[in-house]
Design goal:
Helix content is 35%, strand content 0%. The protein is built from 5 helices and no strands.
């Protein structure tokens, strides 16, 4: 919906915008910046991406055993309440 609300914006491929960047880097960035969060790359997928292969050791990776809860994000907050929180 948001992308449709941006009038006259011409979307440009990363490969066109950054022609000298390695294809693996472009692929990683595109997948991490996918607009739809349901289609966006997860952290585990990003860490396993070939571009990060030399920087990531799965045997040295800390893993959270329980999902984090962000209950505050589930409530509709008024602008006044948001100002108070800030």
């Amino acid at each position: 919906m948001y992308k449709r609300q941006v009038p006259g914006h011409k979307w440009q491929l990363f490969t066109e915008r950054f022609p000298h960047v390695r294809p693996a880097a472009v692929d990683l960035v595109e997948k991490m910046l996918t607009f739809d969060p349901r289609q966006r790359m997860r952290v585990e997928e990003a860490l396993a991406h070939p571009y990060l292969a030399s920087l990531h050791d799965i045997s040295d990776e800390a893993v959270c055993s329980t999902p984090l809860s962000f209950d505050s994000e589930q409530h509709a907050l008024s602008s006044e309440h948001i100002k108070e929180l800030i």
